[in-house]
Amino acid sequence: MAVLLEADLEVTLDRPGEPPVHGRLRGSGSRLTLELDDPGVFAGTADAAAVRGVAETLAAQGIVLSVERDGERLVLLGAVSAPWWQRRLTGTRRIRLGSLRGAWTSARSRSRSTPSVLPGAGLTPPGTLWPLVPTLRRRPRRVTTTHDPARGGDPRLVLTRETALPGETRSVFRLVDGMTLGSDPACSVVLAGLEPLHARIRHDERDEWVVDAIAGMTRVHGAVVDSQILRTGARVDLGPHRLAYVREEYADHGRPFGGRIGGEAGRQLPQPPRTVVQRDATPQEERS
Question: Which residues are CB-neighbours of 158 under 8 A, at least 6 positions away?
Fold first, then answer.
């Protein structure tokens, strides 16, 4: 994959006891130009290994860097191929001298033992151990969940309204297996405007809470359903009433590995049967 760049950067290198070096890096696509007023500071023996490393890194990304002074090209680094005699001088085929002036600048800096100006190994982070010992011979992790073994999570339906006045309370219905919803006074949850027995909530063997339509129209997230597993945050519409299903994430089977940490994949493996059965209480409406 090719790397494309857009660069226009001015740099200044301060040296103890020496005049600063000024430069400008510019270019686009895969070709860059570095204009320096004193390129010899980078050509010393002390920085030779670091310069070779830069050249190899640029080559791996398909980038060519032209180092120039006063409009004259001195050297090319990166995705280039130097002739054999230059490789004997630079130690790599990824550095190609662009002119006699470039060769002279390099030779003069080496003869003067120009001190290092590039960051050394002490300023770079350590490399990754190879092989990657912690990741070898590990079995692939099976995507499953760590839900509450007590089948808890406080599942509930909350009666919502489009508008709410300050201080107005909301009706909260704690779920139990077999809870009925309708307008009949015998229903667990009585709501005006519904069929006498409108819908039923059941708790299945996989610890899922399911809404079943009985007589009236039942919608979940706007879609008409006959039977639908509920996930926390589900919007349930019964006639003129809208309810929100809520269950704590650590016990909601739509969340892998006990919550959001496991990911957001839409398809999860089914849960094994639960051996611990939660004792259901009587339906209760709360005011909060």
Answer: 170, 171, 172, 173, 243, 244, 246
